[in-house]
Amino acid sequence: MAYQEFKLQVLTREKGCFVEITAEVNRILRERRWTKGLLNLLATHTTCGLTLNEHADPAVVKDLLGRLEEMIPTSRGADQHAEGNSAAHLKASFFGASLTLPVSNNSLELGTWAGVFVTEFDGPRTRTILLSFLH
Amino acid sequence: MAYQEFKLQVLTREKGCFVEITAEVNRILRERRWTKGLLNLLATHTTCGLTLNEHADPAVVKDLLGRLEEMIPTSRGADQHAEGNSAAHLKASFFGASLTLPVSNNSLELGTWAGVFVTEFDGPRTRTILLSFLH
Amino acid sequence: MAYQEFKLQVLTREKGCFVEITAEVNRILRERRWTKGLLNLLATHTTCGLTLNEHADPAVVKDLLGRLEEMIPTSRGADQHAEGNSAAHLKASFFGASLTLPVSNNSLELGTWAGVFVTEFDGPRTRTILLSFLH
């Protein structure tokens, strides 16, 4: 058994955006020779998350962000949290801050259309994604 | 340490449906002698997910599908993704494509009322669930 | 490789509430000398979940519970599940019953503002959280 960690910094450029990190994660797997095992990704924050979704057509992410704002509007009169970002906290929890994925042949085993995204709901910021590999 | 994988094919018969796979996953655990450890399940797709929920009363899944369609309607004028299935992408991300579960005595350690479901939002299709076992 | 388990009982005092368990999980990690590896947490139920979110300002959880009730109201005429708690089942699945987190130095590696919460949607109850540690 071996357990190793690596911190990835991700820059998000807008208030609400999805930033794909698939290629960067695969590069880290190759560089660190993390060949086969389970990779845990943790966004060490409470207003962004991690998700798998389509990375072929950017319109998918655009539609998702539009639908999310309609379902969970940024502004809500009854909110009491002084920072005014409770919507971002809820969106983050719906997507989840943590993701565990299978790795084989030095690479994430995703489907053809799937990519790993940092889901930013309170940017722009520099976000830390902790990668932990157990094999 | 051992890391092993197995691909499970699941047929979904409707556009929106939950297909329970608990018994099939437990059968695979027994056949492959995956006795004790962590099992990762990954739906290698972007319009279906995986979830734990009640498997005793089928009305629960029916209520969930009805509520989901009201919250995240299939049709939305502003959507730009040409395939017209952005709602399915959002539902899939809310449930998540990946699930990690404890295994002991050759069996998933779920609660009495819980089952593992593939949550289909853009079927009918044949879906691949990648099972990865670390022990 | 070692795989070990521990059951944590959590009392939830209201119908809808978030109960933070970060300190208790860290105490278990220290007592059992689970130093470094991956910790899986599973709520063995179908009307509560687990999530990471802000633990500094209690107003965040209050805002989340208020927004959730507006999005997924407890009562819905079309629901068929006789127990009348389909809303709780949906909320639980959105948050997810399972969480896998990295452990280093006998402690969960969360961000400064993040805590682990049991998300109760059909309390008050005593909930079982199964902790499984792989290292």
Question: What structural class is derived from the secondary structure elements of chain A?
Answer: alpha+beta
Proportion of beta-strand residues of chain A: 35-45%
The largest pleated sheet of chain A is described as: 5 strands, antiparallel
CATH topology heading of chain A? Jelly Rolls
Question: Largest inter-chain interface?
Answer: A-B, 34 and 34 residues
Pfam family, one (chains A, B, C): YjbQ
Family (chains A, B, C): Belongs to the UPF0047 family.
Organism (chains A, B, C): Candidatus Lambdaproteobacteria bacterium RIFOXYD2_FULL_56_26
Protein name (chains A, B, C): Secondary thiamine-phosphate synthase enzyme
Features:
homotrimer, 135 residues, alpha+beta, Jelly Rolls, five-stranded antiparallel sheet, three-stranded antiparallel sheet, 3 helices, UPF0047_YjbQ-like (chains A, B, C), Secondary thiamine-phosphate synthase enzyme (chains A, B, C)
Describe the secondary-structure layout.
Three copies of one chain form a homotrimer.
Chain A: E1 3-12, E2 17-20, H1 22-31, E3 37-43, E4 48-54, H2 58-71, H3 86-95, E5 98-104, E6 107-108, E7 114-120, E8 125-134
Fold and architecture overview:
The structure is a homotrimer of 135-residue chains. With 135 residues, chain A is of the alpha+beta class. Chain A has one domain (3-134): YjbQ-like (Jelly Rolls, Sandwich), CATH 2.60.120.460. The first copy, chain A, contains 3 helices and 8 strands; from the N terminus they run E-E-H-E-E-H-H-E-E-E-E. In chain A, the strands form 2 sheets. In chain A, strands 1-8-3-5-6 form a 5-stranded antiparallel β-sheet, covered by helices on one side. The interface between A and B is medium-sized, with 34 and 34 residues. Chains A, B, C: It comes from Candidatus Lambdaproteobacteria bacterium RIFOXYD2_FULL_56_26. Chains A, B, C: This is Secondary thiamine-phosphate synthase enzyme.
